Give the backbone structure.
Amino acid sequence: MRTFHCDNCAQQIFFENTLCFNCQSTLGYQPETRSVNAFVQTESGQWRSLHRNDEGKLYKQCANYVQHDVCNWMLPADDPHDLCESCQLTVVIPALSSEKNRILWSRLEAAKRRLLFSLATLNLTPASKEAQPETGLAFQFLEDGVSDQAVMTGHANGVITLNIAEADPAERERTREQMHERYRTLLGHFRHESGHYYFDRLVVGSAWIDEYRALFGDERQDYGEALKRHYANGAPQDWAARFVSSYASSHPWEDWAETWAHYLHMLDTLETAHSCGLQLKPRKADEPVLDDITLPTRKDAFDDTVHDWFALTYVLNSLNRSIGMPDSYPFTLSTPVLDKLGFVHKVVRAQLNRAPDKATA
């Protein structure tokens, strides 16, 4: 994630902000420039950006910004849609009759927007199902108890379903303990499920498929039977030597999705550290050094990213331990896992090198 500053007063602001607390300017995110900008309202009710490159352009707030305060994205004033690019992707929301559901929905949308920011960094902004019914992306946020069947988080044919209970920290932690997982976050769910979507878009039927199968295995094996075995027997004892998570060992599809999610995790964290100017200058020469972070989006080689990542996670875990918290990064990346992450990096770099009008979106 980048760092942002108010166009009106230069105060630091954040991706989710709707108001600059220093000068009280209204803030909004512009997906076309990937920037959070300050706006002033005109007499007509439209909004004018204070960004120096936006002089004269008029915008409107997303309807979910105006009506529900669950969004901070802007649209061009003449856009025929009332919802922003992010909110257009959500086709089902939970019933808003309870205040709890409103809070959970807001958290889901916030995590989804962070995912979309990362995807835009990689030239992978998805089209909506409305725009591209066959290959577009949609989200549905469902609640247990509405139908006879329990809501299962997952992906199918470009539709990502999330159980809104995952936006409840207490419920998510309970599930994490039951599943014996080291790491479970709402944003992680979005990243993982997007991995299934982009596997269909970027790998299936492409020149990448043979290399994918050599690294991850043959995805054509029975998925249902593989999951049954995984939940009945658990992960193999040596899973950490070959997979980024125990769940990744269940099937090559899940291995890809977990690896994809981890790559996005690395990308966003490194971009944040880079934007903040983070450096590590230890007193001893044999300790991790971080002079200048090389963003994954700027290098074909993955080795520099791995070096920066190991140095960064060393200090992140050390800081967490200093305040009595569990490690923020409870992973060990084996050589096979690094090879898989490097493969994801190659697929992503190939997408970045394509012309914008030929991108997946």
